[in-house]
């Protein structure tokens, strides 16, 4: 017996799937999120997640049978959907025809004093984002963090980590990197300090310590603020050091994702790579 | 006598303005583009451009009279528009109520052998983008280039420099930086080589020269490819050196804008800033 077939875009399950795709409140309420596309669904499965529900078009299954099998394996609720139902759910112009619903990671993503040591590598390098509004910036920063070898991210406020745009920009990095959600960044930064790590506040201020002169490459967390306002005063005050990217050009022009990329690069670039 | 007032969103001028905002073909055909919002319109005026047409809501004029005066100064065609006409034109959710139409820069933006020396600083550092599809990445790279003090950009194929999304992500950098449009990147790179400059192809390949070991900080152009495919083989072959960002993490995960940011940083960071 094959999977249950859903034809109509107005089917109740499709409507719920669409809501889960578009609404952060719906994701919190149901404790679940949707991934759209073969690559992201596979990334999630390969990182050990088991989907609660999988929706695939017959065209997808015949075009990518191996991916379809890998994504649906172990999932109790697999549905076949028509192309028009897929188009109704996706926020992309040309959906591949595969969606999977996963449970939110929940308590894995919270940091508190008792679990800090289990979750954080005290010799590692972490990036913390405060109130970043643009899901593209959030996702791109996760992707850069993984590429450069950061140990994880702390995310406080701003856009939803589970939004389709953030997940797409992250290309799976938000599923593989340890990601922690903080209600308030200052409190999270204090946990790092109490554990003996060094907290850095990134500020666009030429009088702050140039990141190139930090002289420390481990046991760090670097906090970056949002696109318009930068870090909150409380977050800056919670940090041991204020660091900056020294610039020849127009300093106010560096955006959050670019600043985070350059800071992480300086903190994470392979040792033994002198400048010239 | 005040400006001509346009009430209706279906007025012919408003329809044309909307087309110019949304269509790259329309911009080429009319030789003009639209900027949306006070900051971008002012950036353009301050960089020496005179608008062909200005459209403002009375609410904008009374809220920001100085900006309104600065943007409209010297413009022969200033129109007052209703809020609903402004909402019809803008591709943002909350338009500020000011739009200005500017002529395309045209021959200022082309590079050929005869004009190369007039337009290019041979001791400068340039970034060249091939076929970048995402206007957000294009704009963000321009913003980073200006922040770090690059001398200009070469853009070949990909999305339209004059699209509202690219201009918005650039925060005015695309209006201030020297930007050159190339029909083919290999031919443009050969102009740089013939002028005695060094051409660099950025590749995600651990066997290429780490950018940290380049040992040269001037007379350079660094080519970066698009989000999916990277640089074309022809562009790589046209370059003297293949360089890479050495990474501890997942190399395939660095996106075009982040790679460009880190490469420019290494090529442009202030001298006398040793690593540690």
How would you characterize this protein structure?
2 copies of one chain form a homodimer. With 276 residues, chain A is α/β, with parallel strands linked by helices. Chain A has 2 domains: 4-104, 2-Layer Sandwich (60s Ribosomal Protein L30, Chain: A), CATH 3.30.1330; 107-268, SPOUT methyltransferase, trefoil knot domain (Alpha/beta knot, 3-Layer(aba) Sandwich). In chain A, 38% of the residues lie in helices and 19% in strands. A 7-stranded parallel β-sheet of chain A has the order 8-7-6-11-9-12-10, sandwiched between helices. A 5-stranded mixed β-sheet of chain A has the order 1-4-3-5-2, with helices on both faces. The longest helix of chain A is centred in the middle third of the chain and has 14 residues, at 135-148. The radius of gyration of chain A is 21 Å and the shape is elongated. Chain A binds chain B through residues 136, 140, 143-150, 169, 171, 173, 210, 212-217, 245-255, 257-258, 261-262, 265, 268-270, 273-276, and chain B through 136, 140, 143-150, 169, 171, 173, 210, 212-217, 245-255, 257-258, 261-262, 265-266, 268-270, 273-276.
